[in-house]
Automatic annotation (TrEMBL):
The keyword Transmembrane helix applies. It comes from Sinocyclocheilus grahami. Its main location: membrane. Keywords: Cell membrane, Cell projection, Cilium, Cilium biogenesis/degradation, Membrane, Transmembrane, Transmembrane helix. One of its GO terms (biological process) is non-motile cilium assembly. It is a multi-pass membrane protein. The keyword Membrane applies. One of its GO terms (cellular component) is ciliary transition zone. Coiled coil: none annotated. Belongs to the TMEM17 family. It is found in: Cell projection, Cilium membrane. The chain crosses the membrane at residues 42-64, 70-92, 104-125, 137-157. The gene is LOC107598907. This is Transmembrane protein 17B-like. Pfam families: Transmemb_17.
Length: 182
C-alpha cells in the first residue's frame, strides 16, 4: 500500500483549494506528461551541485598560483556564472517538469544548451586551466545531468502539440453538431 506523506497531502490540498476546478491535480482524462527520469536527474543534480561547487572552489584554490592571470579571471567568472545558472536552471526544470509547463522547460533547456554546457565543455577540454582528475570527474557528471532535459522537453512538446490539435478537432465537432441541429 502506498501512503503519501502528510506534507505531500497538505501541499495537494492547498493547491486544490486555491484552484478554480475541483479536479486540477488528478483527472482521468488528463495525461500526465511529467518525466520521472528528468525529475530524478534534477533531484540528484540538486544534491550533487554543492559537492561540485566545493570541489571547484578547492581545486581553484590549489591551482590558482600556477594559472595565468587571464585564466584566473575566467575561472572565477565561470564559477560565479555557473552558480547562478545552475540555481535558475534547476528551478525552471522543476517547475517546467512538475507543472508540465513547456516555456519553463524550454528555458531550462536553453540555459543548459547555450550557457551551462559550453562552460562545462570549456572546463573539461581546456588543458591550459590545469584540469585536475577530481574536476574532470565532477564536470563529466554535471554534463550528464545537463543532457537529460532534452528528452523530457521533446516528449512534453509533442504531447502539448497533439493536445492542441485535438482541441481544434473538438471545436469542429461542436460546429458540425450545431449545424446539424439547425
Amino acid at each position: 500500500d502506498f501512503c503519501p506523506s502528510p506534507v505531500l497531502i497538505n501541499r495537494f490540498a492547498k493547491m486544490s483549494r486555491t484552484s478554480h476546478h475541483c479536479n486540477v491535480l488528478y483527472s482521468p482524462d488528463k495525461d500526465v506528461v511529467s518525466s520521472l527520469p528528468l525529475q530524478m536527474s534534477l533531484y540528484f543534480n540538486m544534491w550533487f551541485f554543492p559537492f561540485w561547487w566545493i570541489s571547484e572552489v578547492v581545486m581553484l584554490q590549489l591551482k590558482y598560483p600556477a594559472l595565468a592571470d587571464y585564466y584566473k579571471f575566467i575561472l572565477i567568472t565561470i564559477l560565479i556564472l555557473m552558480t547562478l545558472i545552475e540555481a535558475i536552471r534547476l528551478y525552471l526544470g522543476n517547475v517546467g517538469n512538475l507543472q508540465e509547463k513547456v516555456p519553463e522547460l524550454a528555458g531550462f533547456w536553453l540555459l543548459t544548451l547555450l550557457l551551462q554546457f559550453p562552460l562545462i565543455l570549456f572546463q573539461l577540454f581546456n588543458d591550459a586551466i590545469l584540469i585536475q582528475p577530481l574536476e574532470r570527474g565532477v564536470h563529466i557528471i554535471l554534463a550528464l545531468f545537463a543532457l537529460f532535459g532534452f528528452v523530457a522537453l521533446r516528449a512534453m512538446v509533442r504531447h502539448t502539440e497533439s493536445r492542441f490539435h485535438l482541441r481544434q478537432f473538438d471545436g469542429i465537432q461542436e460546429l458540425r453538431t450545431r449545424r446539424d441541429l439547425h
